[in-house]
Amino acid sequence: MGNVTDSAFTPLKESIPLRSALFKGIAVFTPAGDLVYCIDPQKQNRWHLQLCIFLQELLGLPEPPHFLVPCFTATIDRWQDPRTGVVRTFAEVYPFVSRQRALLSAVFGCSEGDWQIATPQATLCDPLVLASYRQQFPELWQNHDLVAQLEAIEPASPLQPVKRPTPIWFADQSHTMQGYVLRLFVSGGSTATEQMLKMLHQLLEEQLQQPYTLKVIDVRKHPEQAEADQVTATPTLLKVWPQPVRRVVGEVDDPTILMQLIR
Predict the structure, then answer these.
(1) Which CATH number does 171-262 carry?
(2) Is residue 79 within 8 Å of 22, Cβ to Cβ?
(3) Backbone angles phi, psi at 241, to 5 degrees
(4) Peptide bond preceding 255: is omega within 30 degrees of 0, i.e. cis?
(5) Secondary structure of residue 68 in the 3-state scheme
(6) Going edge to edge, which strands form the sheet with 236-241?
(7) What angle do CA 198, 170, 255 make, to 5 degrees?
(8) From 173's CA, which of 5, 28, 118, 155 has a CA 20 to 30 Å away?
């Protein structure tokens, strides 16, 4: 239901319930940091291509941005060792989006330390080649505060088409706002910050039965945003929408205080 966006670990963006089930997760980022992803318990193939089509639909692109694969992607596989019965996690992220590991960990419910940096082939991920697509896909170089999940839905029968789901949240100011828009201001990335983010998201999932987007902003990297929102201490949780604007400073993961903020 929620979306986590982040410019703290930069650029960034949702869904942090701890996931114990076996699944395969696929994430595709845009160069500006928007994120679309899929969590597939059936571990189907070709979700990278489906996510590119999803991006095309969400941003109104002329065609699917297949050039993002694999350079702007991450994949996670949670599987059970047949010999020991132990659930294991293999997570791989490409260098261009390795800075997004905190967000990926929040989205897929794993540890930031689980992510390994993939080594692309020499012929892939040439910055000049990727930049050549900017004129054709300018929307991908614009941050739309987008984090959207494409649900893994299978048709009931071969004759029944799959209905494409809508994004969890699309917080673009040019669209009519729905649900809640929250901003969490932090100072630097740390294990404590990651734990606070997970706890906060879990509270939002449990207490807020409406769509929301949570954007994490590192005041060290984005002091202008902190100044614009009059943030003088961290952590600060700001409810931007619906109005009136409200804020909590300090114990942002306190359920009682959180409910007072979102009412």
Answers:
(1) 3.40.30.10
(2) yes
(3) -145, 140
(4) no
(5) helix
(6) 2-6, 212-218, 180-186, 236-241, 246-249
(7) 30
(8) 28
User: Using the 8-state DSSP alphabet, how is residue 69 labeled?
Assistant: T
Respond yes or no on whether the N-terminal peptide bond of residue 41 is cis (omega within 30° of 0): no
pLDDT tens for each residue of the chain, 263 residues long: 444 444 333 333 333 333 447 889 999 999 999 999 998 888 766 688 889 988 988 888 888 899 999 999 999 999 888 888 888 899 999 999 999 998 898 888 888 889 999 987 767 888 888 999 999 999 999 988 888 888 764 433 333 333 333 333 333 333 334 567 778 888 876 777 777 777 777 777 777 766 777 778 888 887 877 777 778 888 888 887 776 778 888 777 677 777 777 66
Regarding beta strands 115-117 and 212-218, do their DSSP bridges make them parallel or antiparallel, or are they unpaired? unpaired
Question: Per-domain residue ranges for the chain?
Answer: 17-149, 171-262
What is the Cα–Cα distance from 218 to 193, expressed in whole angstroms?
A: 10
Q: Tokens 């297949």 belong to which residue?
A: 66
Which tokens sit at 222? 């984005």
pTM: 0.55
Q: How far apart are the first and last CA of the chain?
A: 18
H or E element: which one contains 43? none
Residue type, 19: R
Residues contacting residue 79 through CB under 8 Å, at least 6 positions apart: 22, 87, 88, 90
